[in-house]
């Protein structure tokens, strides 16, 4: 089977290529979260694309690549994820996240490939006091969330749509890496304690996406590591994991952020993995477990201050 993964240079895309049994060229040692045995046997020939090799907003580039490769499965992980930048660049956000998905959906249908699309918790407004299920009505607050929901609506019937949240991995920038960088310094660290979500680790998420996509399971699935927390508690956990002092982390409210962020964030980003449970599929491990494996894989050690 030929598998095409878009956004292969990103956090999730890199681990998707690895989880499918492919090799991610990173210019250095590939940090694996899969243990000494690796992700398992190859599912087939894996082709990874990024913005340089196949800009998804370019219909000709997408159709040309897909018609040339003729994959049986396309996992669309490419996205414009700069949440605050999306507020001032809505055309770019919708061109990549919505129109780009339209192009992938068209191309997948043309070659008979199954499409899996990666979406986000930002499709919800965060005002619910309860975790969001797959059947709750989306109401995005930000341009980013609106563009990703538009991408969902561009998908053809039968597409696998995976919504996830608070993604962290060995590739790219994320809150865990930010916390590790700050842990090496001195002084207090201030993080918001009124935004709730489920940190999701790309090695675990990629494995679940591989299963759903190769099984060609249609519909929307919420896939996150289990448990929820706040950014404040997550950063405290990161510092504790590397032997630094978690008491350096101080809670603030979103309103106290300085400067204020351009894009509104959902106060509640917790996604209930109801469709996975109802279909009898395994849930991802607790987020503390994923954090431990990521910190170990990054090989970071911070001496207590």
Structural commentary:
- The chain is of the alpha/beta class.
- The chain has one domain: NAD(P)-binding Rossmann-like Domain (Rossmann fold), CATH 3.40.50.720.
- The protein contains ten helices and twelve strands.
- The strands form four sheets. The chain has a six-stranded parallel beta sheet, with helices on both faces.
- The longest helix has 22 residues, at 90-111.
- It is globular and about 55 Å long.
Question: What's the structural blueprint in terms of helices and strands?
Answer:
Layout lengths: L1 E5 L4 H9 L25 E5 L9 H11 L3 E4 L6 H6 L1 H22 L2 E7 L22 H12 L5 E5 L2 E2 L6 H9 L5 E4 L3 E2 L2 E2 H13 L4 E4 L6 E2 H11 L7 E4 L21 H5 L8 H12 L7
Parallel strand pairs: 1-2, 1-3, 3-4, 4-5, 5-10, 6-9, 7-12
Antiparallel strand pairs: 8-11
Helix pairs in contact: 1-7, 2-4, 4-5, 6-8
């Amino acid at each position: 089977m030929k598998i095409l993964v878009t956004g292969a240079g990103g956090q999730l895309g890199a681990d998707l290529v690895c989880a499918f049994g492919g090799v991610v060229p990173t210019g250095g040692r590939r940090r694996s979260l899969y243990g000494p045995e690796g992700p398992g046997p190859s599912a087939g020939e894996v082709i990874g694309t990024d913005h340089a090799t196949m800009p998804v907003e370019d219909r000709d580039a997408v159709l040309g690549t897909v018609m040339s490769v003729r994959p049986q499965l396309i996992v669309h992980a490419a996205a414009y994820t700069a949440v605050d930048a999306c507020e001032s660049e809505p055309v770019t956000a919708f061109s990549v996240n919505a129109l780009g998905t339209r192009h992938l959906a068209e191309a997948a249908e043309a070659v008979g490939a199954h499409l899996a699309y990666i979406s986000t918790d930002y499709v919800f407004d965060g005002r619910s006091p309860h975790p969001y299920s797959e059947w709750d009505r989306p109401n995005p607050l930000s341009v980013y969330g609106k563009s990703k929901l538009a991408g969902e609506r561009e998908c053809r019937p039968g597409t696998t749509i995976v919504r996830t949240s608070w993604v962290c991995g060995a590739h790219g920038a994320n809150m865990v890496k930010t916390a590790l960088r700050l842990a090496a310094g001195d002084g207090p660290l201030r993080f918001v304690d009124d935004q709730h979500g489920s940190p999701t680790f790309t090695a675990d998420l990629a494995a679940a996406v591989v299963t759903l996509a190769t099984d060609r399971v249609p519909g929307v699935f919420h896939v996150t590591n289990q448990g929820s927390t706040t950014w404040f508690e997550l950063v405290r956990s990161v510092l504790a994991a590397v032997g630094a002092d978690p008491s350096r982390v101080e809670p603030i409210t979103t309103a106290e952020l300085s400067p204020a962020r351009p894009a509104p964030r959902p106060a509640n980003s917790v996604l209930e993995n109801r469709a996975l449970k109802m279909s009898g599929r395994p849930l991802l491990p607790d987020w503390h477990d994923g954090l431990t494996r990521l910190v170990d894989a990054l090989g970071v050690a911070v001496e207590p201050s």
